[in-house]
Amino acid sequence: MAHSTGTSLKPVSSDVQAVAREVREEMAAMPVPADLVPNLESLAP
């Protein structure tokens, strides 16, 4: 994945939230053990 100079100007927190949102959407689309959900939620700011 190529990184442009514009990505470095974005706040890291917004990137983390975006990734966490995508992860939650993917996890919601597949069956996962319930004990994994709290662990992922705790990683989000």
**Rg over alpha carbons:** 13 Å
- What would the average pLDDT be, to the nearest integer? 71
**Strand portion, in percent?**
under 5%
Return the string of H and E elements.
HHH
Integer tally of domains: 1
Low-confidence stretches: none
The separation of the N and C termini measures 25 Å
Shape: elongated
Structural class: mainly alpha
Summarize the main sheet.
none
Query: How many DSSP E strands?
Result: 0
Q: What count of helical segments does DSSP give?
A: 3
Helix content: 55-70%
Explain this structure to me?
With 45 residues, the protein is mostly helical. The chain has one domain. 67% of the residues lie in helices and 0% in strands. It is built from 3 helices and no strands. It has helices spanning 5-9, 12-28, 36-43. The protein is elongated. It starts with a helix and ends with a helix. The mean pLDDT is 71.
List descriptors.
45 residues; 3 helices; mainly alpha; elongated; single chain
Could you give a quick summary of the protein structure above?
By secondary structure, this protein is mainly alpha-helical. It is built from three helices and no strands.
Give the arrangement of secondary structure elements:
Elements: H1 5-9, H2 12-28, H3 36-43
Helix pairs in contact: 2-3
